[in-house]
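Posted in: Structural Biology > Protein-Ligand Complexes

Title: Requesting predicted complex, nicotinamide-adenine-dinucleotide in pocket

I'd be grateful if someone could produce the 3D structure tokens for the following input. Sequence and ligand are given below.
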Amino acid sequence: MGLIPYKNEAYLDFSDEKNVAEMQAALKKVGDSLGGEYPLVIGGKRVETDGEVISVNPAKPSEVVGRTGRATEREADMALATATEAFEKWSRTSPEARARIMLRAAAVMRRRRFEFLAWEAYEGGKPWFEADAQVAEAIDFLEYYAREMLRLKDGVEIYAIPGEESRYFYRPMGVGVVIAPWNFPTAILTGMSAAALVAGNTVIMKPSEFTSVIGAKVAEVFEEAGVPEGVFNYLPGYGSEVGDYLVGDARTRFISFTGSMQTGLRINELAAKQTPGQRWIKRVIVEMGGKDAMVIDESADLDSAAVDIVKSAYGYSGQKCSAASRAILHEKIYDEVLEKVVEGARLLKIGAPDSADINVGPVISEPQFEKVSGYINSGNQEGERLLGENPGDGKDGYFVSPTIFAVEEKARVANEEIFGPVLSVVKARDFSDALRIANDSPYGLTGGVYSRNREHLEKARHEFQAGNVYFNRTITGALVGVQPFGGFGMSGTDSKAGGPDYLPLHMLAKTVVERF
Ligand code: NAD
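-- Reply #1 --
Done. Output follows.
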């Protein structure tokens, strides 16, 4: 297939008035359509349910963004039957044809880009730049996995012995259950689904209950792009109501999950149990949380370090699995860096994402607001709060201002994933001590080092226990195809989304040998 080489989608420039005008028009248009209803889609048919999932605007919780269907075991069963049947034909569809549909989905999403940004603002509470980076990432996943499938469609080279031909190639697996979190509702949902689909599997996609409307929009993109009926099924609902059923069912071939450690481990355990009629060991791809650290040594460019700590800690209100939630500072530069970080974080503008200058939006939901507030209480008792206020009651939006605690390394706020705009700052004696503190976590997702010392960087290159380690830059915003993403330890199965090893996780490798 003739294709231009893969290239990351460029971000929109919101200093350009044209883009601002388009974004405002999209906010108006989407704003006028809030409150719509989105039934399940199974086998191409709209399926009504008794219950509903009500999604609200986190910046204005009284505003309903939309109502989606709420799947029960009955609809999960329908989806599993439909996806199982659709697999027969889709798995025999050529890889090129499957890749073309993903490329078309990328084009559809590009055309609907501002609309998606507006949904992200209303349902996810995302500042414009964050929303845009994420929709660009979704487009990248579609473009990248399409090309990856073309690269792998004939298998890979292996050796043979004289008189024989050996082939090693990939086959689709079966029905995949894709379960997504709310924090990257367009990108993660699109990426996990696209990889599964282009590899020839059928998909039951369960979005997060907090961003189910964006899930419906992603489903529309796949439909418009031409994914056949039954190959992709949209099954919104509560994880607690349909999750176990989908994961445990004998027809499920693999589960692709991104979300919290607690849910990921539960899925891993349940998927390991064989149920009657089950003819395979389910494959489990789980990507989970983090407690990501940035280490700054005494040789670092301290101004840049402070700027990047602020960006990494507070982008999307710290609700990124990759967010810096710990800054570990060498004692010699501790006071200076801390002061710069506090200054930088103080300048961030908080508010509903209805203009380009908002840096920090609300946290996603009432439970999340309560959770983050609870950690701020803990931090108040465990250490010194250098920035931030006690959150209010959340009735006028789930806003939490950027918060900084100076704490000892064992403090709860410095060890548990908070998933909010809360940074814990810890002092280290020297570089080895800093790295030890960074690695003293069950998680291992992202990490960063700011240093001009080559020895320190080389040590961290090998010894920093994280799936994605960044030097002298931010630690968030992994680019598809450029910074494959996935965690060590309790952060996940290290699947490396957006990387060369990702698609084979969704396929069965087969060896066929013929003797002549
Ligand atoms: P969550 O675990 O609460 O929910 C994730 C999804 O799992 C939702 O769709 C939910 O409905 C579903 N679910 C809940 N119970 C289930 C069950 N028993 N069986 C099956 N599915 C079930 O996580 P969240 O709050 O939506 O997302 C935030 C978490 O995701 C954070 O921990 C964050 O670090 C993590 N995350 C990780 C990555 C990564 O790539 N490692 C990326 C984004 C987010």
